């Protein structure tokens, strides 16, 4: 990696944690900062791991910066707050299946990181970043996920992929983390992300009953759509659900994968493995601008 401005998109999952550890140990050129976009609703285990990363990075002179666009759970349930659509499963009045649009990754992860990069370059919005001033953004994508590697969509950032340069797979990242005392790294994603697989939901229910109860309560609260749209007289024509079975979360029949199978990946800012959800047609809530 070369250039005057080098940053790491830190999701606090396996691959981005490996990138930070590599830099902190001098096995990779250092970053000017590692940037973590905090939705406010990550599992407690993610925040605990993030604190470990902050300590080891600080010892190497790499600041870990937390940026935020708000608390996604609170914002969704706030009638006075704009609703950044989550990819919720929809059930129409006549039993139609669909999904709501996914705007949450962009609004709660990508935009705050871009704003921080612009600030560090000295050109916060709405100032125009001069041509030729470019920051490298390292993204933790391993060889087994190479299809998720994408170019940046702004001229002032250039995405780079240090794990691809090293030929590392996710298993290499896990081995490196374990070798240096950072085992049991989870995946970064909101507690109430509809993309969770049944393995995640089953573990949450068994190992973190308070977070499970939080997700169940949120699932019930979003059943009839955005709080803001409902308050404005535009209720959802159908129902929202967190689980793909389109039943209340605590009534879903969970079918975790057999031991050894790979769980679904987390939701990094530029590495969410799921395509943007299509608009829900007649089911999509009409939001107030």
Number of helices: 9
Number of E-state strands: 8
Give the CATH level 1 class. Answer: Alpha Beta
Q: What is the total number of structural domains? A: 1
Low-confidence stretches: 279-289
Task: Tell me the series of helices and strands, N- to C-terminal.
Answer: EHEHEHEEHEEHHHHHE
User: Architecture in CATH?
Assistant: 3-Layer(aba) Sandwich
Our Rg estimate from Cα atoms comes to: 20 Å
Quaternary organization: single chain
* Major sheet strand order: 3-2-1-6-7
Query: What share of residues are in beta strands?
Result: 5-15%
Taking the sheet with the most strands, its summary is: 5 strands, parallel
User: Percent of residues in helical segments?
Assistant: 25-40%
The span between the termini is 42 Å
Computed structural class: alpha/beta
Shape: globular
Short synopsis of the structure:
The chain has 289 residues and is α/β, with parallel strands linked by helices. It is built from 9 helices and 8 strands. It has a single domain, classed as Rossmann fold (3-Layer(aba) Sandwich).
Structure description:
Helices cover 32% and strands 11% of the residues. It has helices at residues 14-24, 44-59, 72-76, 104-121, 162-166, 170-179, 198-207, 209-221, 227-231, and strands at residues 6-9, 33-37, 64-67, 89-91, 97-99, 135-139, 157-160, 239-241. Helix 1 (14-24) packs parallel to helix 2 and helix 7 packs across helix 8 (209-221). It is globular. The model is unreliable at 279-289 (pLDDT under 50).
């Amino acid at each position: 990696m070369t250039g005057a401005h080098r940053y790491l998109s830190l999701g606090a999952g396996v691959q981005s944690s490996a990138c930070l550890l590599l830099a902190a140990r001098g096995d990779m050129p250092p970053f000017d900062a590692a940037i973590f976009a905090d939705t406010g609703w990550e599992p407690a285990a993610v925040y605990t791991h993030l604190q470990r990363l902050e300590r080891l990075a600080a010892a190497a002179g790499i600041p870990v910066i937390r940026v935020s666009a708000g608390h996604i759970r609170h914002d969704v349930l706030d009638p006075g707050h704009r609703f950044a659509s989550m990819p919720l499963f929809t059930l129409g009045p006549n039993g139609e299946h669909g999904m709501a649009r996914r705007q949450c990754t962009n609004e709660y992860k990508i935009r705050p990181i871009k704003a921080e990069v612009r600030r560090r370059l000295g050109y916060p919005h709405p100032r125009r970043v001069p041509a030729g001033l470019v920051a490298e953004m390292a993204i933790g994508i391993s060889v087994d996920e190479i299809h998720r590697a994408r170019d940046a969509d702004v001229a002032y950032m250039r995405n780079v992929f240090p794990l691809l340069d090293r030929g590392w797979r996710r298993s290499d990242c896990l081995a490196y983390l374990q070798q240096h005392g950072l085992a049991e790294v989870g995946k970064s994603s909101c507690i109430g992300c509809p993309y969770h697989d049944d393995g995640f939901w089953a573990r949450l229910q068994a190992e973190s009953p308070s977070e499970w109860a939080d997700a169940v309560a949120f699932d019930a609260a979003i059943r009839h759509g955005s709080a803001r749209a409902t308050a404005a007289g535009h209720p959802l024509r159908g129902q929202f659900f967190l689980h793909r079975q389109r039943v209340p979360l605590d009534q879903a029949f969970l079918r975790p994968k057999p031991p050894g199978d790979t769980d679904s990946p987390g939701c990094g800012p530029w590495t969410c493995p799921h395509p943007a959800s299509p608009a829900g047609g007649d089911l999509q809530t009409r939001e107030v601008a």
